[in-house]
Amino acid sequence: MSLPHAILGLLKYRSSTGYELKTKFSKSVYFFWNATLPQIYRTLKEMSARGWLTITIEHQKTKPSRKIYHLTSTGRKEFQRWLAEEPRFPEHRNPMLIRVFFGKNMEPRRLRDQLQQYRGYYAGLLRQYEKESASAIKQYASSANLAKDAPYWNLARDFGRRHAKMVIEWCDAAIASLD
User: Which of 78, 86, 167, 174 has a 20 to 30 A CA-CA distance from 15?
Assistant: First the structure.
């Protein structure tokens, strides 16, 4: 997946500023696709050059002017083209698994500590999936009249929830095997 296509998808819901898009990333697709504000602005500039977006300037009295990005028909077509293409399967890279693979070369206590940290990270994600994300989906779907989108958002959330559970279980087993 490319950042431009994630942005196209988010803009399909509503025209936004770059900062608003960053907020949307952090409240929706963050767990499986994230982007920094500089990446978003750089990509918006490229997408505008491709004709996928138009920009309007909103002048404000007490604040700097805002650039609002709008999806064009060319951008909508590109988004639909991307959705229809065959999916590419991601390269799987996991720095923690490399450490485990070469774990014989570490102090067992150090590896155990790193596995505990890894587990803690995924336990935090799991809590977010089960509480914050579920309520955010429910709230956003009802407030924006996007109830038909919510089942798809929940499918993505469920994948993240299940993945986090699996990693936690694996960490527990790995730690137990080191004891």
Answer: 86
